[in-house]
Structures are given as C-alpha cells and as structure tokens.
Records
---
Amino acid sequence: MNNFKGKILLVDDRVENLELLFSILTKAGYEVRRAINGSSALMGVKSVHPDLILLDINMPDMNGYEVCRQLKKDSQHQDIPVIFISALDDGLDKMKAFSAGGVDYITKPFEMMEVLSRIENHMQIKAARTKLKDLNIELEKRVAERTLELTAATQALEQENIERRKAQAMLEHMAWHDPLTDLPNRTWLMQQLQDSIAKAKQETNYQFAVLFLDCDRFKVINDSLGHMVGDRLLVEIAHRLMNSLPSNATLARFGGDEFIVILKAIERVDDAQQLAQKLQSALASPFNIELHEMFVSASIGIVLGNFEVRHPEDLVRNADIAMYRAKALGKARYYVFNTDLYNNAQKRLQLETDLRRAIERKEFFLQYQPIVSLKSGEIEGFEALVRWNHPKRGLISPIDFVPVAEETGLIVPLGYWILEEACRQFQDLKTDLETTATSEVSQKSLSLKISVNLSAKQFSQPGLIDTIDEIFEKTDFDSKNLNLEITESVLMDDPQSNNIILKALKDRHIQLTIDDFGTGYSSLSYLHRFSVDALKIDRSFICRLAPSGDGLRIVEAMTSMAQSLGIMVVAEGVETSEQILQLQQLGCDYAQGYWFAKPLDSEAAKQLLLSCQTFNI
Ligand code: C2E
Ligand code: CA
Ligand code: CA
C-alpha cells in the first residue's frame, strides 16, 4: 500500500466516473470519499474535511460552479482547493470555473498521469498554504506575545519612572525641609533670602523683612520634660506660627527652637512689627502636651532687607543680634535691628577675640584692695582684683570683660592664672616682709588673708580642687591664707556637688566669703548649711547708709542675722567716715573701700603694709 497522501472528496453524478477515479486515486495513496451530487458534497465536506475536492460541473441538482461558490462562502472550507471535472464537450467555462473559486480543471476522458500530477500539485500547494498559514498564525501569536511582553515592560518602566520621580521628589523635599516640623529648613531659607536680595537689587524700592524668632527658656522644657515633649512642642509652635502668617510671609525652621520668617514686599518696618506682635500673641495661650500645660514666649529680632544688603548671612546675623537684644531687655518682645546694635556686637566680638589672646600675651595684672578690721583699724587682708591692660584700649574694667570671660568659658584659665598670681605675689610679699620689716609687721603678715574672686563657672569646673592644690604647691602658698569670694547663686546651683567641694576647701582651711550679699537670693539659711565664714554686704546697700537712705535697716538686719549664725560681716564700697561709724555701731566686722584705699598694685600694697599698719578709725 502506498503512503497516505491526503483526503480527497470526489463529486460526480455518474457512477462510472466515480468508480474509475476512486480506484485510481485510492491506488495512488489517497483516501477518497465520494458524493453523487452537490448537496451531499456540501454536507460531506463538513464531516470529511478533505484536503482537495474533485468536482464535476455538470450535475442535475446543483452544478459544480454553484457547489464551489457555496463552499467558498464558508470560512472553514474556503481554503480547500477545488478542481473541476468536465467532459470536453460539456462546454467548460474556464472563466466561470476560476471565478467560482476553482484552482484547476481536468477534462474527460481522463489522462490519468495528468490527473494525478495536477492533484499532487494542488495538494502540495494546499499543504504549503496551510503551512504558511500556520506559520503566519504562529508569527502573529509570537508578535502578539512580544507585544504583550513589550507592553508589560513599558508599564514596568513607567512604574519605575514614577517611583524614581517619587524618590527624587522625596529627596528634594528632604533637602529643603526640616524633618521634625516639615517646615522649610535653613538651606531653603538662605536661598530665599538670596532671591529676595536679588529682587531688591533689581527694584530699588523693594523692601522685605527678616524676623528671627527664638523661644524663651526652651531649654528648661527640654531639660525638665524631655526631648520628646520638647519636639512635640516645637511642632505645635511651628503650627501656630504657620497659621498666623499673611500670604506674603514664609516660615522656616532655622534650628533648635529658632524660626525665621521672611516678610516680602513691605512698605514700612511697621508691617514687620505688627507681624511680630501677631506671632507673639499666637504663642500666648498655653500648650497642652501629654498632660503638661506649658507657656511659651518668644523673643523676636527684626531686620529690614533692601538693595543695600549684600549677603543673606548678614541679614540672619543682624536679626539674631536684634533678637538677643530683645532677650536682654526681658524676653517675650521684639526688637528692630539698628547699626549701633551691630557695632556693639562687633565690639563685643572683638573683645572676645582680644580676651583669648590676652591670656597668652599676659596682658592681665592684679591689684589689691585692703580689707580692714572695723574694731582695730588693722589691715586684715587684701582682695585681689584683676586688671586688663589692653595693648590698644588701655585699661579695661573687669566689669566689662569678666562677664564676657564667663560666657565664653575663658574665665576658667583666667581664674586659675589669677589665683596663681595672687598666691605667688602674696608669698613674695611675705618673704619680703620677713627680711625688711619689723618683726611685728612680719609676724602680722602670717595671718593676712588674700581674697580671690571665684566665678560660678570656675566653681563647677571638674578638677577645681586638684588645680588649687597644684597652685599651692607651685607657689609654696599656705592654704589658710586664702579666702575665696563666691556669689550666692553658686551655692544654690547644685547643692549636692557643692557640698563636696566646700568640704574639700574646709579641709584645706580655705575661707569662704559670700560676695555681693543682698543682690541675689539672700537666704541666710544656706549660709549656715554651707558653713560660710563671712558675707560681704554689697556696695549698693553701703552707699544707702546715709541718714536719708533705707540701707541702714537692711544692713542692720543682715548683720544681726549673720552674727547669730557666727558669720563675719564685711562691708564693701565704704567711702565715708560716716559709713564707717554706722557700720561700727551695727557691729560690722570688716570694711573695704576707697576711704581706706583704692585697689593698689602689689608694690603699693606692700608699702601700705609697711607704712601704716593701722587705720585711724
Ligand atoms: P567685686 O568682687 O564686688 O569687687 C569689688 C569692686 O568694687 C571692685 O571693682 C572695686 O574696685 C570696687 N570698689 C572697691 N571699693 C570701692 C568704693 O569705695 N567705691 C566704689 N564705687 N567701688 C569700690 P572692680 O575691680 O572694677 O571689679 C568689679 C567686679 O569685677 C568685681 O566685683 C568682680 O565681680 C569682678 N572681678 C574683679 N576681679 C575679679 C577676679 O579676679 N576674678 C573674678 N572672677 N571676678 C573679678
Ligand atoms: Ca569680690
Ligand atoms: Ca562685691
């Protein structure tokens, strides 16, 4: 048997034709189905699915053209090649045959070889077509798949793009905003100021204002309630400030508890002042955070910006200076910057710089002011007072530079220098007196006291006692000749650790005097608790001792209380003999002041000791 070559539907109304072709084709290896008229052919097609149809043209019920046309209408079968069969004398209309959809024709009587080769050709063409169609379908499928993949990839890319843009936007936001309050940050602010300055340079009438706002005593809240509460409070503050801004203002967080507002396009400084008031009243009602009710006030520095401004930093600095002024004036207020303020700040900055160098360059020296017994008139000791001989400005008063030294911490090295210098000069004086003075004077010098002022900063310095010991050792100084003057506030600060220091001082027989007594807390109870040796009544009370002044009663009260506690009383700033008399009557122990002597350099102090041991009082 031949190999199966395909299925053929044979349609002819004449049986002999059918039989003949059937046997030939079957032998040739085709599977052949037969139909004897057009309608059974159309039905047979559906069940057989032939690869080729041999179709007689002349049939009684429906001719071959019609059958072919119907077949071609049906999408399922239109691809099946149809070869028409016709007797030569039937009058084959070739045009009609092709237009009905036939691919070929064969004529009777059949030339068998020709029939087979035509059939084979068309079978091959059909197979090739089918393959092509399959390939096309496959191709289309692949195209569709690729398209799908591409669409998915494009979508993924778009999504990625969106994500990237989001991340980018977030990064940008972070670069310009403060994470806690989400307000614009310092970088942003500086940029805005730069822009405002640029605008003012273009339009010379353009004015704007910078308001530097700093919360008052915010540190206390942070220290007492913790940073979490502090942070939440800052967020609330930011919120309230934000809600009080006019449309031409922008708010930024500058750092910590500092905020800055830029008020654009203003006519007068009044506009900025009004805004400052508004911001302050926005903070006036209490804040409630985690069951804590808190009151917050702010100090605001205002500076105007116009075409004259050069750098954003200048604006911020000047607003900051004005803000500090507002704080110095009592906080919870605003202050408008002026050039005097700037000059003062400059001076102050210069002083700070000079002060740093002054320690290295040894521009300081000490003067000594005698402290005199009001009973005997004898010199009891000296208070060492620091002086600064500025290379350009000459003598600068400690009233001007000691506070700066305290704020900057320079008081610590300076204070140690003072103590060492005082101890050394005192030791020199003693040796001097031993060789030159009478034995009486020399003897007296053994019990002389040198008083040295110790600032709060120094007192809380770790290693204070060790350094004092070192100084004693270095200068061969006897510790019981030293008296330290501290202010009341020092004792109130940290009673616990103070007690340790005070005990160490007592162990060394160093005496302790409360300086400027009456100007601070003036609590006598702690004088007792801390076993203070003496208190120095502030000069402001002594100068009110005059008959019309109210100082007398106050000094009297202080003296009698001190006496009851066994504490010595020193009066400072004594300038008249009346004051001396009054102080004597009140039972005051010692006095110091211009009436006896102004602060003297070490040589003059020595001469005073040698010449006049006793004041005539
Ligand atoms: P203080 O400790 O109360 O010093 C007394 C001040 O009163 C000194 O001013 C002294 O010259 C002045 N004074 C003395 N007698 C009279 C008087 O009769 N009338 C008037 N009007 N004044 C008199 P000075 O030397 O200018 O010192 C001022 C302040 O500077 C001192 O006040 C003290 O707080 C600080 N100070 C001075 N020297 C030192 C120091 O060595 N270390 C520290 N930490 N502070 C110092
Ligand atoms: Ca003093
Ligand atoms: Ca004083």
Note: The mean pLDDT is 92.
---
Amino acid sequence: KVIVTGALGQIGSELVTAMRKQYGADNVLATDIRHIDHPVTQEGPFEVLDVMDGERMAALAKGHGADTMIHLAALLSATAEANPLLAWNLNMGGLMNALEVSKEQNMQFFTPSSIGAFGPSTPKDGTPQDTIQRPTTMYGVNKVSGELLGDYYFHKFGLDTRGLRFPGLISYEVLPGGGTTDYAVDIYYKAIEEGAYTSFINKGTYMDMMYMPDAIQAIIDLMEADPTKLVHRNSFNVTAMSMEPEMVAAEIRKHIPTFELSYHVDPIRQGIAESWPNSIDASAAKQEWGFNPTYSLETMTVDMLEKLKVKLGK
Ligand code: VAH
C-alpha cells in the first residue's frame, strides 16, 4: 500500500495512475496541497496534504496502512532559485517529514534527485555515478542534501531508501512547474499550437532528458529491485538522451516541416542549465537493477506530437 505526495505534479499524476493499475487503485493513496478534479483525485483514494504538516502525513500514512512512501512534493529549479528560503524550508522540511514518517512506520521510501544535484565542477560528459557534487543552485543544494539524508536514514536506521537522479522529464499529461528543462516540453505544445517556439534555453545547451513513461517504469523497477543487488541507493543516474533545442526542432520538422525555432534566452534558467552536466552515465542503474529506457528523441517526438494533437484538439 502506497502513499504519494505531490500526486498532482508532472511525475505524480502519471505515477499514481501507473501504480493504481499495477497494485490496485485502493492501494495507492494520492495526496497533494490542493484538490482538483483529475483522475488522480477521482480514480482512487485522495487526501489534501501539505507536506510541511508532519502530523497529518503520519496520520494519513497510518490510516492507509501504507508500507511505501513516494515523496514527490517539491519546488523545481527555477522556482527554487527565485525563492531560495522557501525552497529550503519546503523541499527539506517536506523531505524530513517524509523520512521521519517512513522511519516511524517502517515504510520503503522513494524521492527523486536530479541532474541538478551536479554543479560546474562536476565532469560534464559521461558524468559518473560517484563524482563531485557542488551545485550552485538552491535546488541542487536541496537535492544533494536529500541524497545524503536518504543514505543517512539507510545506514543509520536501516530505512529502505531509494532514489533516482532524474534528467529533464518530457510528458504531455501535466506540465512541469518551474523547471529549467521545461523548454523541452513547451516546444512540443507550441509546435502544435503555433508551429513555432521561442526557447528560453540557448541553442547548443545540452541536457539529459527522458520520456515520462521511461521515468515511471524506472521508479517502479527500482522500488521492486532486489535490495541485495543495490550498491547505490540515493541516487542513481538515469537518462535516455542528451539533447539541445536545435535537435528537438529538427525532429519536430520531420512531422511539421515549417516549424520555426527562435531564442529569447532567460539568463537565470540558462545559467542553471549551464551549471548542469551535458550527458550523464547511467551504467550503475543498468548494472544494479536493469534500468532500460525505451524511448529515443525520435520515438518520443512521434508520441508527443500525436498525443498533443488530440489533447489540444488540433
Ligand atoms: C527542473 N525538471 O528543471 C526539473 C529537473 C533535471 C531537471 O530537476 O528543475
């Protein structure tokens, strides 16, 4: 039985649906800071939860009889950079509550890290699983702290904590909120809506990306992995592709030949992007629990454009 925080977010909205299909709807309690009409709130148990309220989190987990905590509620990189103190309090306060509740109720624990956990002094190409992590963003500080806390609760209390350093995630269900990699989602929406996109990330800026179905499968595969095989825990590098805006545009033009890409670089998010790796190495995830992404830039583009045409009624 699973409890999910941030269940209405970009990852949560799809993970809840997938887990309800796999484990039974009633076994997955979705929570988020507010209620909206959505399959996540309509197709299984849902409760309003502010992750800063540890008491209510503990009560909801206990009432549900949860044995697994999926903690997704957080502010993403650009939002965190604009509100660093709020980001520290929410990202770390929420995480500590989720770790403490999981420890008290002996739950298996998952929370995402990010390529944002790396910084300018990290090797940018083929970024190793174990390497220097001195991020220069508040989000990155949150993610490195989160990784260290996850390993601490594992070594100190035996809590079964596991995590993934996600690249930019691309999906058509729920928009990411306030991320740096969001250009790679926006570009597909605008390609359908306007046939053109003005990117806030500059050409030639490489970042790791992955299609959401692969991210969801990676969470489920990691959580079901044989713990005796895990050398690492918080958190595994995972990625499916390394790309920059021109590459996405070229792929879109195979379907919309007149698609135009222009640039209006946002110095804040460009700065964040340039502090992150170009391409990380996911071999530890592949070796320790069989990580195996299935979508490439080409097949992701076909699926994104197809699904968005329907979603946007074009
Ligand atoms: C962000 N989408 O842009 C998130 C993610 C690696 C990127 O952490 O902040």
Note: The pocket of (3R)-3-hydroxy-L-norvaline is lined by residues 76-77, 114-116, 139, 166-169, 176, 179-181 (CB under 6 Å).
